[in-house]
Task: inverse folding
């Protein structure tokens, strides 16, 4: 074997050891998942809200995106609705989480009955719901829908053997005037749901207050 042949053979062996490495080490490696915060397991966002059984925000955003494609293609109307219970945190502090959860369930059922199958409804925050409503013809139809939502929220919530009133607001955003994607439309609708504080001087009538008044009335009667 010539000197050049030996040199090439040595170079080839060195390259296999320190260059690309042995064949087994060149096998494609599976990408490691980035560590989650807190060192816990990676948990995907749920598609269904466990309390109300409605869709989650991620599901609604996907439905809005599909609705935007249909609206652009066929020229149909598209409105995103937002319903928010402004005093829900106060209800939690005064009455407990169980009462607030019961109010959310009642509101979810009211919205389902009102919007029916024409709208995709989801719980998007702790105290907020949103829906995408397709096929809106004119402003009058939108006004009627928003007014119906206000009426549904004005009714007291019959929860835990008592009636409570929770201050709430309704907002809306239309495509493409108020936004051209799901997140922008939801943000615009949420901004319109902000309600002035002076509109409801007594927004929350607590179950505890009602029980105190009932006890005082019974004492006076005795």
Result:
């Amino acid at each position: 074997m010539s000197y050049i042949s030996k040199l090439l053979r040595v170079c080839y062996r060195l390259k296999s050891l320190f260059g690309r490495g042995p064949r087994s080490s060149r096998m494609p490696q599976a990408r490691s998942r980035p560590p989650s915060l807190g060192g816990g397991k990676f948990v995907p966002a749920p598609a269904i809200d466990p309390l109300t059984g409605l869709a989650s925000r991620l599901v609604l955003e996907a439905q809005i995106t599909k609705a935007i494609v249909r609206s652009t293609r066929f020229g149909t109307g598209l409105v995103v609705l937002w319903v928010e219970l402004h005093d829900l945190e106060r209800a939690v502090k005064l009455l407990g989480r169980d009462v607030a959860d019961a109010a959310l369930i009642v509101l979810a059922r009211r919205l389902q009955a009102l919007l029916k199958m024409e709208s995709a409804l989801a719980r998007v925050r702790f105290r907020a719901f949103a829906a995408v409503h397709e096929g809106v013809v004119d402003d009058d139809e939108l006004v009627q829908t928003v007014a119906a939502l206000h009426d549904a929220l004005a009714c007291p919530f019959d929860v835990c053997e008592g009636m409570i009133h929770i201050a709430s607001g309704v907002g809306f955003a239309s495509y493409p005037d108020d936004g051209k994607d799901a997140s922008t439309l939801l943000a615009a609708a949420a901004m319109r749901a902000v309600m002035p504080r002076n509109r409801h001087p007594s927004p929350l009538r607590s179950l505890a207050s009602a029980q105190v008044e009932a006890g005082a009335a019974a004492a006076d009667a005795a």
In short: The first strand starts at residue 78 and ends at 85.
